[in-house]
What does this fold into?
Amino acid sequence: MRTIQFREAICEAMTEEMRRDETVYLMGEEVAEYNGAYKASKGMLDEFGERRVIDTPISEAGFAGVGVGSTMTGNRPIIEFMTFNFALVGIDQIINNAAKIRQMSGGQFPCPIVFRGPTASAGQLAATHSQAFESWYANCPGLKVIVPSNPYDAKGLLKSAIRDDDPVIFMESEQMYGDKGEVPEGEYLIPIGVADVVRQGKDVTIVSFGKIFKEAKKAVQQLEKEGIDCELIDLRTVRPLDYQTIFESVKKTNRLVILEEAWPLGNISTEITFQVQNQLFDYLDAPIEKINTADTPAPFSPVLLAEWLPNSDDVMKAVKKVMYI
It folds into this structure.
């Protein structure tokens, strides 16, 4: 099987869906003439032209609103934010229009739109450009939220997102665009809301998603050398959240560690912790451990940033804690 970059998987997904359906179009800052800020739309302007690959002014509220409105005339837009930090300018359009228009119209207007772009930290980008927004959007009914960790999942899930009749938040990472992985050349889709059990294990369940999932994977590989058998779950989607896959794993391992790149209060790992202890309290042999960033804005200093971000060592410590070793 061929190996391609994450950005190429994103580009292929959009290109294939635009060839398949003429109502799909891409709009955002630098997506056309510049081939995308991260080159995720390379070559798309040449193939589809400026009516379907549209450069916008620096006005997230404006082009997010145009995208939502265009769904009501039968289109299926893909709206790219250069970063979801900038999407805060357009969040009113996402939360108060995209997420609610189906209900407010009595079902007359579905809103088949994808908002995509990078989330969370990406090196020395400092406090206002290093925020993880997955749990913010997952808190809003009416939205679906996808956070892939690898090129294969990114392509299959993005194609599913573009075909979905509800608004989808598709969150990537600047630090993953160059990641390489195996991606089939043929057509495939990955269903939204289904987690991936990446590794079977019997001692402890580790749950993560997105860019930080790579740190969980490193920890599992090291723990295996130490004789600790971890089950590793990649959520892929955080709304809807695949509780059942987590439940079945915890019933087997009786221990749970969750790794998430987000501030500690009110996030996806908090929700999982509550649901597992509520549903499976009698199965737990240890308190659940969740690992998050420090409870501060992201620092600029690389030394401080390394302390702020969770890593594989943190995962290993948490696993040994729940195993009482």
Observations:
- The mean pLDDT is 97.
